[in-house]
């Protein structure tokens, strides 16, 4: 009879001891106002209440820093719902974390967010040897010279996209731009990485739908990202969908292992990865699992984030006609005044994409203000400390180290007129110019050894899409009933309401 009361008493005593221990940990650490019982929950509540309920939490650090006058880093006490955090919002300190120390990823937490989509061996969450093998396997397929080989295929998919936009222009309807963009870029990603042709733009493609079924089960708010999902139904759906997705990708990988590349004179990223592992005689079950997880990671992350970036770029250009005009003038200069000839010119001279300097600046500015993945989560280590300019050393352990690039790229002392959409800042080369972007301050793809592997493909496809659409269409974002564009949490940071848009022919 006494067992249950004694167990409850022991659990209560343990919880109180842990509470005191956790709260004392922050006694001499910089951060927002700290409560002896609630830690920083009250601060988080106030910040969250200032934003729409579904807003992405990657903006919290920026708002918190401004509201409480915080410095280049600060600590957050969110126990027991989240691990204690060290938040970095300054380039030099960020580079200590991601390059000098190269702290490992906070894998356990990140797998709660994306593990059911990308797999346990995803290069996003893996550390040590597992990460190194997957990175080395797929790096050759994303070298700039190899990425340029995909330009003709990218052009074909973008022309299909133009047909979809043309249909909407004729109907003059309002549609979700994020979905339309994601379908196009999914086709591009699958073609570049696997060499397969999907039909996601016009139909419900099985490959894309498998990804979307898993993504729909991801946490949709800040706290649920840290809590265990107790729904047996959702757990079963994750398991079932995951097996179906792995079987689909596994068939594609097995076919390439057995039969080799499907195109003469062109290896896709999967072919280079298989060749790398065959050369090292590592083609065992573990390697096959790594290839499957890496393909899922590259295709899902690549199409998801690039689609959002394209949406943000369209939205920004629709609000800044003078910037749009300058982009169009650059396209006229490079590809001629007739937009209809741009596709053939790109196929014949893909290197011309390297001369789209202002177009790239526009993309970079959209990524600065609305990064689809604005944080990098690392695990602090007992032997590693954060060193500030005055020589003071601050602990990284036992904290989850959150490099918040979203907050860094909105700092007024790093980006003059930080809330202004001003692409010209990315063309400034004079360090004395107030709009000069300091070294390592622009970091939507992260920096260091674990920087985004698909960065070159992402920027290339975005430039091509803008070349083939901006002179043929006008874009208008259509938010109604007082709503507006902000970033929502949907695996990554996507435009609210899917960016309702109306397009018209020019």
UniProtKB/TrEMBL annotation:
Residues 1-17 form the signal peptide. It comes from Aspergillus cristatus (Chinese Fuzhuan brick tea-fermentation fungus). Pathway: Secondary metabolite biosynthesis. Keywords: Heme, Iron, Metal-binding, Monooxygenase, Oxidoreductase, Signal. The keyword Iron applies. This is Cytochrome P450. It comes from the Eukaryota. Its cofactor is heme. Gene3D superfamilies: Cytochrome P450. Heme binds at residue 452. Pfam families: p450. GO terms for molecular function: heme binding; iron ion binding; monooxygenase activity; oxidoreductase activity, acting on paired donors, with incorporation or reduction of molecular oxygen. CDD domains: CYP59-like. Belongs to the cytochrome P450 family.
């Amino acid at each position: 009879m006494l067992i249950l009361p004694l167990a409850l008493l022991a659990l209560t005593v343990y919880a109180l001891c842990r509470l005191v221990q956790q709260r004392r940990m922050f006694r001499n650490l910089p951060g927002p106002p700290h409560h002896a019982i609630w830690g920083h929950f009250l601060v988080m509540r106030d910040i969250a209440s200032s934003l729409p309920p579904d807003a992405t939490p990657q903006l919290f650090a920026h708002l918190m820093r401004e509201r409480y006058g915080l410095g280049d880093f600060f600590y957050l006490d969110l126990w027991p719902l989240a691990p204690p955090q060290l938040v970095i919002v300054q380039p030099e300190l960020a580079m200590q974390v991601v390059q000098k120390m190269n702290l490992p990823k906070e894998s356990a937490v990140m797998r709660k967010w994306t593990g059911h989509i990308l797999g346990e061996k995803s290069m996003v969450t893996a550390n040590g040897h597992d990460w190194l093998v997957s990175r080395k396997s797929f790096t050759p397929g994303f070298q700039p010279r190899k990425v340029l080989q995909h330009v003709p295929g990218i052009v074909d998919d973008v022309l299909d996209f133009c047909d979809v936009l043309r249909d909407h222009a004729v109907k003059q309807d309002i549609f979700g731009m994020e979905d339309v963009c994601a379908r196009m870029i999914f086709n591009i990603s699958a073609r570049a990485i696997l060499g397969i042709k999907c039909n996601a733009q016009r139909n419900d493609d099985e490959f894309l739908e498998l990804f979307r079924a898993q993504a729909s089960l991801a946490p949709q708010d800040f706290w649920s990202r840290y809590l265990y999902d107790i729904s047996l139904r959702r757990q079963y759906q994750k398991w079932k969908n995951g097996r179906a997705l792995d079987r689909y990708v596994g068939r594609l990988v097995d076919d390439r292992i057995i039969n080799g590349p499907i195109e003469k004179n062109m290896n896709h990223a999967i072919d280079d990865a298989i060749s790398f592992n065959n050369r090292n005689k590592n083609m065992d079950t573990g390697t096959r699992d790594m290839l499957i997880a890496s393909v899922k990671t590259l295709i899902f992350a690549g199409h998801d984030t690039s689609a959002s970036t394209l949406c943000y770029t369209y939205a920004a250009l629709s609000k800044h006609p003078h910037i749009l005009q300058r982009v169009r003038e650059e396209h006229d200069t490079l590809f001629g005044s007739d937009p209809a000839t741009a596709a053939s010119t790109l196929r014949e001279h893909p290197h011309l994409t390297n001369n789209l300097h202002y177009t790239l600046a526009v993309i970079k500015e959209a990524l600065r203000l609305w990064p689809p993945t604005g944080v990098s989560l690392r695990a602090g280590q007992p032997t590693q400390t954060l060193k500030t300019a005055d020589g003071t050393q601050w602990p990284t352990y036992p904290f989850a180290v959150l490099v918040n690039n979203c907050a860094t790229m909105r700092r007024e002392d790093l980006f003059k007129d930080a809330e202004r959409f001003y692409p010209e800042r990315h063309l400034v080369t004079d360090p004395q110019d107030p709009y000069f972007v300091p070294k390592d301050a622009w970091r939507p793809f992260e920096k260091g050894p674990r920087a985004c592997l698909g960065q070159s493909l992402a920027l290339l496809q975005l430039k091509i899409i803008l070349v083939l659409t901006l002179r043929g269409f006008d874009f208008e974002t259509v938010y109604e009933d007082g709503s507006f564009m902000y970033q929502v949490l949907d695996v990554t940071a996507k435009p609210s309401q899917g960016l309702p848009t109306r397009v018209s022919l020019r």
